[in-house]
Amino acid sequence: MHFSHIFTIISLGLAVHAQTCWENLICTGPLDTAFPGQWEANIFAPDCRTVFPVSILSLANASVISKWPGSAQISGNGSALVFDFGKEVGGLATVSYAAQGSGALGLAFSEAKNWIGLWSDSSNGRFQAGDGAIYSNFSASGNYSYTTDKAHLRGGFRYLTLFLITNETASTIDINYVSVEIGFQPTWSNLRAYSGYFDCSDEDLNKIWYSGAYTLQTNSVPVDTGRIFEASGWNNSGALSNGSTVIVDGAKRDRAVWPGDMGIAVPATFVSIGDLDSVKNALQTMYDHQNKDWSFPEAGPPLLQQGSDTYHMWTMIGTYNYLLYTNDTEFLDKNWDRYTHAMEYIYGKVHQPSGLLNVTGVRDWARWQQGFNNSETNMILYHTLITGAELATWQEDTTGLAQTYTSRATNLSTAINKYCWDTSYGAFKDNATDTNLHPQDANSMAIYFGVVAPSSASAQSISSRLTHNWTPIGAESPELPNNISPFISSFEINAHFVAGQATRALDLIRRSWGWYLHHPNGTGSTVIEGYLTNGSFAYRNSRGYSYDESYVSHSHGWSAGPTSALTSYIVGLAVSGRVGSTWTLKPQFGDLEYAQAGFVTSLGKFSAGWNVTGDGRAYSVWWKVPEGTVGKVTLPPLPSGKTGKITIDGKSFKNKSIRKKEGLTFEIGGGNHSIIVVSK
């Protein structure tokens, strides 16, 4: 039943049928996930595009008054009730009500419980007036129905406050019906049809993985729902890209393409929801708005901010990631000339004799200083060159670009280690001339991008040094003091995993993402943009920004790092060649008992898992991957520290054994395989 039919029923005064209408709207069809299993219980996505509140809260103290659906009345000027949807939602809200007297029904939205009130939390911008509320006016007693218009689509919220504005002492409103038509993931008929999954022995990690996946869904939006800056209120009717769906940075705001955010969001999208159409449209809009000097904007339309060397390169890295996951050669052919010009533009900022990039486009993720030979930017350039060489090979370039890019990357790595490494501290400096600041971003990327070898003393020192920034609720970023950035911490957890420090990485995930998952004022379903070390949601305020604390996004794809990391490093399954033609399986057990995950490419389904038994004296590993692919499997040492005998597909191999420290690496073809390792 379409809910316009329900509006007709209520307008005729048949509000008693509202409960029946709710029941008829609830969708109970199959999940259609690529990997059915008990882990589907962790999916936050609703089973219908029309969703309803689950309870009513008191505005005074945010305590639960009653379950919903039910009955609710607002009586008297300024009186209010808060409708809690139980998780992050977003789209067009509909309220049907019976009014006595005259006045207006106000609607205000909030992602966080501590910002519920008669004004919506802030989405319009830090220098603008507050978002305020929207109103449904009534001039006489009767039945009314109100649906927010497209411009006032609210991209992300959990709480909807309904309140009465009236000059009449006897005016009341009886709320009969409240719903939201989901606006995100617009091309999906089934919001729960994930192409990836994850499950392990730690329920918090499972929920964190799925909260990242759900965040990415809320960030995949219709292409005509971008944020436009307004003098007051909000306007989400801006053009973002061509196509039907596009990935943006946040559900509530900024609702624009930000390539830096995609550095974390795209790998997480691939292993979870699998929506790469939104990724393609986001990248294409960056190419379509490339500047005459071949630089890319920092953000897509309608913002089109400029002046960021790092975000310029993130568009290029995003191009590589998209091709790795899709092998969309048509997209690469279309944009290859623009890509190569973009490479020359950024490499033209590498100066001699240092051989380091000199940063002139200083806009970046939020760090408080940028410029000159900033080490983070040089780490990103290294990764841009390495991935560019891969793209040149895939493009079958005959001009030697792959060799050129590889040679440039080698020289850059030498320069970074020569000029930016702080031997006395055992980590990279923020700049070639800076001896005091050792940033989280550059040091995490140094390991993650391979500027230092994973097993090297430098990598192990960096991994250890990064823990010096930790607080009980996450890692403070020295380059943004007093702030915790789940975006940059996403790079850090990847770095610890690459360095073989799985327990350390899991610790940080639990400290930061686990803290927010259980926060009583959070969404309980998505990942937050950032927060302060004192536990408040006032991200970035400590550096003198004039952000309203309610401006912080509580559903931000750049914070979804654990979703890809848990699949790629804990389970250990990752693609290394286009769409998984080659792949790697390198499990890391950490402190877990078991884990499994899977994802889908155009070649078919990829899945793997492992189980540790006997107090670490034995483990089993299995994987199912398409025939015709080739993988490199690395079996870890036994957690017990003993040597072990190996059985592959039920056959014992005398010449294959697990060593105490090194483990064992070998190549194997596709298909279904299993291995058992038992201590000698």
Automatic annotation (TrEMBL):
InterPro entries: 6-hairpin_glycosidase_sf, 6hp_glycosidase-like_sf, Bac_rhamnosid6H, Bac_rhamnosid_C
Signal peptide region: 1-18
Keyword Transmembrane helix set for record: no
Molecular function terms, GO-annotated: hydrolase activity, acting on glycosyl bonds
Superkingdom field: Eukaryota
Any single Pfam family the record assigns to this protein: Bac_rhamnosid6H
UniProt record, GO biological process: carbohydrate metabolic process
Domain Alpha-L-rhamnosidase C-terminal, first and last residues per copy: 582-640
Keyword annotations: Glycosidase, Hydrolase, Signal
Domain Alpha-L-rhamnosidase six-hairpin glycosidase: 239-460
PANTHER family reported in the protein's UniProt record: ALPHA-RHAMNOSIDASE, C, PUTATIVE (AFU_ORTHOLOGUE AFUA_3G02880)-RELATED
Entry protein name: Six-hairpin glycosidase
